[in-house]
Amino acid sequence: MPKVYGALVDAETRCRHYASERDIIAIKFKCCQKYYPCYHCHNEAEDHPIEVWEKESFAEKAILCGVCKYEHTIHEYLDTQHCLNCGSSFNPGCALHYPIYFKI
Ligand SMILES: [Zn+2]
Ligand SMILES: [Zn+2]
Ligand SMILES: [Zn+2]
Q1: Which of the residues 2, 9, 36, 84 could staple to 41 if both were Cys, CB 3.0 to 4.6 A apart?
Q2: pLDDT score recorded for residue 5
Q3: How many domains does the chain have?
Q4: Ligand 3 centroid to residue 47 C-alpha, Å
Q5: Any residues with CB less than 8 A from the CB of 39 and at least 6 apart, and which?
Q6: pTM here?
Q7: Residue 81 domain-assigned (yes or no)
């Protein structure tokens, strides 16, 4: 299972910034290849700017379900509202933040 960095508050990758029932994913950042629960966690821990995933990298596994630890490719994640392995619902509000992580 990949290590998740940042201000975690529980074992399902919720963090100090996003801790609702549905905030159960962590994202691997292209710049440092580390999983963080959110971009605030990334920016508090790292001293470099976030590098977004380009379209040609969307086959990379970069989205971790905090409940079952299944790693989704970016393509899979952008295409679903729930975990493809355990069915847990993802927070639809995350879509507002896609441009921080992905070049769509
Ligand atoms: Zn980084
Ligand atoms: Zn956070
Ligand atoms: Zn899952």
Answers
A1: 36
A2: 98
A3: 1
A4: 30
A5: 50, 97, 100, 101
A6: 0.96
A7: yes
